[in-house]
Amino acid sequence: xxxxxxxxxxxxxxxxxxxxxxxxxxxxxxxxxxxxxGPSGSGKTxxxxxxxxxxxxxxxxxxxxxxxxxxxKERELAEFRRxxxxxxxxxxNLIPVLTALENVAFPLWQTRLSRKEINKKASQxxxxxxxxxxxxxxxxxxxxxxxxxxxxARALISDPQIIFAxxxxxxxxxxxxxxxxxxxKTINKEKGTTVVIATHDSRVISQTxxxxxxxxxxxxxxxxN
Amino acid sequence: xxxxxxxxxxxxxxxxxxxxxxxxxxxxxxxxxxxxxGPSGSGKTxxxxxxxxxxxxxxxxxxxxxxxxxxxKERELAEFRRxxxxxxxxxxNLIPVLTALENVAFPLWQTRLSRKEINKKASQxxxxxxxxxxxxxxxxxxxxxxxxxxxxARALISDPQIIFAxxxxxxxxxxxxxxxxxxxKTINKEKGTTVVIATHDSRVISQTxxxxxxxxxxxxxxxxN
Lengths: 225, 225
Ligand SMILES: Nc1ncnc2c1ncn2[C@@H]1O[C@H](COP(=O)(O)OP(=O)(O)OP(=O)(O)O)[C@@H](O)[C@H]1O
Ligand SMILES: Nc1ncnc2c1ncn2[C@@H]1O[C@H](COP(=O)(O)OP(=O)(O)OP(=O)(O)O)[C@@H](O)[C@H]1O
Ligand SMILES: [Mg+2]
Ligand SMILES: [Mg+2]
Description:
Structural class of chain A: alpha/beta
Bound molecules: adenosine-5'-triphosphate, magnesium ion
Mean pLDDT of chain A: 95
Oligomer: homodimer
């Protein structure tokens, strides 16, 4: 469903070129549960953002169900992302002036659902991730791990076809981290959502079915687990 | 060296009261290497910020070497923090317009050292944490874990008496995370710096000499390791 061909991402810093991604080619199928593993600075976030059509490669192509995403205009891409993808960002990217409930409900505000239905759905997801009592807290009134879970709830509410999760357990203790993993596994199993997780957490990696190892911007291995 | 007595921290959200910290009393000695452990939302960041004089308790007192910190004015406290404490924040709090080198050098800009000496020291610390080549990157030109390491280097450069580290390995792979731990252990051993680490990472906890467990804002256990 998602195919990356010869993806290159080069940053120019002053006079030096930094190759964050070097000639990466990858194929993802529907309903896969994948971990993207590698040391700090190896290119996980950069690759996840290109696969999720949030960033464009310096060269190479990305195809989604055969469509060449590199040729789409930004407005088309934005609409496409909103209807097909869900993101759990490494630093959450929550909207500071909205409460936890509003942040989770936000992706559905542009749909035809009523505000009442949207808030009900958002409350249910908050309950599932253990934050039912924190619905009216703003992000700066939540702990680091609580913010991370709100970011996860927001990614799930619009029932995306693919979820891109960047270090979703970095700020969570092992029990809460496992709750997060159970949630991603359930959505993958029951709805067939493709889930791609950039992570260092061995407990997460061991529960995925495919492990892609990246180092210095290159894929070192890509194996079934 | 640091003594907390009956610390209470209560947040008022609309009409509900949230007790983030409940009657916490603690004594820290010089040169201790301590981990503060507990689930997401248990009060680690709140306690660390009160111990580090960045936040004041709703009630209770904090004494540093016998001085009552609750009675100091904000300006006195700011000067005091700058000369005695180092912080590694959960979300780094790097200054976006400064490069990695400038962020690390920043705490020394108000001292009598020459800019040349300061930059040399900052470069050395960046080299130690593996980011020598990234000195001129700005925070948004660094990966999550690279930013975390810059935040750690900044906390160490002013040779503080106590370092408060909030989840310093959350965004790091196990090898880079261990480098970070080695750095904190070395500074604790060679300079006698007190190090307090809020963490979920079992590999960090096992390398500390005292483990304080917190849950729902209360201390559950406080034991030598
Ligand atoms: N400004 C605030 N207003 C209201 N509640 C707050 C505020 N800041 C924190 N809290 C609440 O206080 C509790 C403790 O938060 P704290 O950030 O100390 O937890 P933590 O142990 O650091 O968690 P994590 O491991 O997820 O970072 C949380 O339940 C949080 O929602
Ligand atoms: N805007 C930028 N300009 C220059 N270099 C950048 C930029 N963004 C990222 N980089 C560099 O690209 C490399 C890959 O970064 P990336 O964020 O993808 O790593 P990562 O694998 O997600 O790391 P982490 O696990 O620490 O989050 C890093 O060395 C980083 O310094
Ligand atoms: Mg990253
Ligand atoms: Mg915290």
